[in-house]
């Protein structure tokens, strides 16, 4: 208990009946009591950490399953009743646990192991060759996600960057028969309104009526044309 300064020693020594009681007491104290939900969140809890070695990951993986199996007088009941004996792991469960571990370590590991141990697995179950499978895991994992793969990806990206050439600048389009350096074209821009420069081009209707704005427009622009057309 000297490793747990947050817990008073007297609270444990006066009530403890076994090491399991101490373990359950600490889990209750830190708010991580065992519940039926643990098995549903095992994929999040058991997710392999980046760079975690096979031996460390397998110990953590195996410990999770051992901790969540039903034990005698367990705090979790089975169909509303307390269990009377420890649960024994069946053979199928052991093989399934190993297969799940391989998949969570790397999705390609189960297929690789099936290819390597295909001859032995024809007559044996997966749990029978567990030690041989775990012995090959680290080497295969290094091949699947080793440093050489990262280096190759970096070299490829660097090569693409070194070979990159910016696109050539686009040439400005020039209208036919347009002189270089001429006035820029007005694409879809209305022409400015023109006004007559000579008196003979003034709007003669406005001149006849004595309007002072006769010099500001030609006859075709006269605002009186629609009125006169209606009058006719």
Largest sheet: none
Mean pLDDT: 80
Reading the helices and strands in chain order gives HHHHHHHHHHH
> Between the first and last Cα atoms, what is the distance in angstroms?
115 Å
Structural class: mainly alpha
| Helix percentage | 40-55%
Low-confidence stretches: 147-154
Cα gyration radius (Å): 44 Å
Q: Tally of extended strands?
A: 0
Strand proportion: under 5%
Structural account:
There is one protein chain. The protein is an all-alpha fold and 232 residues long. Among the domains are: 34-148, no CATH class; 199-231, no CATH class. The chain is 45% helix and 0% strand. It contains 11 helices and no strands. It is elongated. The model is unreliable at 147-154 (pLDDT under 50).
Characteristic terms for this protein:
single chain; mainly alpha; 0% strand
Topology:
Blueprint: H1 9-13, H2 19-29, H3 42-45, H4 54-67, H5 91-105, H6 109-116, H7 118-121, H8 130-145, H9 147-162, H10 204-208, H11 225-231
């Amino acid at each position: 208990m000297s490793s747990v300064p947050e817990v008073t020693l007297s609270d444990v020594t006066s009530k403890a009946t076994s090491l399991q009681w101490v373990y359950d007491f600490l889990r209750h104290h830190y708010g991580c009591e065992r519940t039926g939900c643990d098995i549903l969140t095992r994929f999040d809890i058991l997710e392999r950490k980046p760079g975690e070695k096979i031996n460390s990951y397998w110990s953590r993986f195996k410990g999770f399953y051992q901790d969540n199996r039903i034990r005698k007088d367990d705090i979790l009941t089975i169909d509303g009743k307390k269990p009377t004996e420890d649960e024994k792991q069946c053979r199928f469960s052991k093989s399934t646990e190993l297969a799940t571990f391989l998949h969570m370590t790397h999705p390609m590991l189960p297929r690789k192991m099936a290819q390597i141990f295909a001859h032995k697995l024809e007559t044996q179950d997966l749990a029978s060759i567990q030690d041989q499978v775990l012995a090959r895991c680290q080497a295969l994992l290094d091949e699947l996600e080793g440093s050489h793969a990262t280096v190759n990806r970096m070299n490829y990206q660097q090569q693409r960057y070194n070979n990159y050439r910016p696109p050539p600048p686009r040439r400005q389009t020039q209208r036919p028969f347009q002189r270089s350096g001429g006035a820029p074209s007005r694409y879809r821009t209305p022409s400015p309104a023109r006004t007559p420069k000579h008196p003979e081009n003034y709007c003669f209707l406005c001149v006849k009526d004595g309007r002072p704005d006769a010099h500001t427009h030609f006859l075709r622009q006269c605002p009186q044309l629609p009125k006169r057309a209606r009058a006719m």
